[in-house]
Amino acid sequence: MDRNMIESAPNAAADWPDRIYDLLKQYNVRQVALVPDAGHSRLIKRCLADNTLRVVTLTTEEEGVALMQGAWLGGDRSVLLMQSSGVGNCINMLSLSSIHRTPMPMIITMRGDFGEFNPAQVAMGQATQSVLEAMGTLVHRADRAEDVAETVEASLKLAYNTFRPTATLIGQRVLGAKTFGKD
Amino acid sequence: MVKLGASGKLDRRDLTRVLLSDRGDLLVVAGLGAPAWDISAVDDGPQNLPLWGGMGGAAMIGLGLALAQPDKDVLVLTGDGEMLMGIGSLATIAHQAPKNLSIVVQDNEHYGETGMQETATRHGTDLVKMAEGAGIKTTMLVTEPGQVPALKAALHAKKGPFFAVAKIDPASLPLALPPREGAILQARMREHLMGPAAHLA
Description:
The structure holds two protein chains of two kinds.
Chain A: H1 16-26, E1 29-34, H2 41-48, E2 54-57, H3 61-73, E3 77-83, H4 84-87, H5 95-100, E4 104-109, H6 122-134, E5 138-142, H7 145-162, E6 165-170, H8 172-175
Parallel strand pairs in A: 1-2, 1-3, 3-4, 4-6, 5-6
Helix pairs in contact in A: 1-2, 1-7
Chain B: H1 12-20, E1 27-30, H2 34-43, E2 48-50, H3 58-68, E3 74-79, H4 80-85, H5 89-96, E4 101-107, E5 110-111, E6 117-118, H6 127-134, E7 138-142, H7 148-154, E8 162-167, H8 182-194
Parallel strand pairs in B: 1-2, 1-3, 3-4, 4-8, 7-8
Antiparallel strand pairs in B: 5-6
């Protein structure tokens, strides 16, 4: 099935993706690792248009965790953008952060969450926060558009100032749930 | 000249010794297990990150480091099992195409740390072809000591991404453990690259 058909993107009027982009600039992020998600599509476009950001499109999300390790080793700040289903792919690789005390901020768009249509998304979506916390990640959620930027900023600060994995979960209530017309 | 092991294949530690001699500013990320012991036996110090975990992540750590430090040569030295676990990263690296990144797989065709179980490379999987298929244009298969000077030169040529497989003798060599505290391993390389300011970032 076409992945775009079962995912949802934020309303074009919503400005939170632009505010996340502004935060990446403000916090001097240099490497942006991602597996694309429709919820992040606008932010990804902004990053791709910026020559001072290196966008690294991954084959699996755990590569992004390892990339963040290498980036910090070389003095670059980085972030990992992904959908909640990708969190499961990161579990063991997140141990790199606790081994070395490496900042690893993650910005995660939720599926299997508020008003989900696709049963396949529910297992990982409901496990996302527990899995992250089991690996020592400090997790914050934003379930209203107006909370997203503030929550992302808190997660960036926590990661870079206290040297650990952090995550912002952007709830499906913010993103909207696609329903194939069956709502 | 690199020594050979009992099988007639390259001795892994002697190969590592030659690759890291006169290394200049070469930064090395070593995959967990024997490659980490090899670099620690030969030349431990702040230019090395020997990994104690994160299996499958060595090449991507090298990518992040190479992108952050484009003027430095970066070598990822890892094993066949570790490379196979993160094989998709070859596509990611080909896409990013950092000129200063080399990956050398010391291929003994076995999982050496867990009882010498055979890996897929023992049964026909060709990592050089996989790297080429991923889009990495400069590759090398090293089976003889006479090829090692060219391998070593490629690490400093800044014509990467460069990918090589060196077929090595499967003998397990004496352990040479690096510091086990990862915070030290990370901090020493950051200080090497950025000075004491690294700790104030």
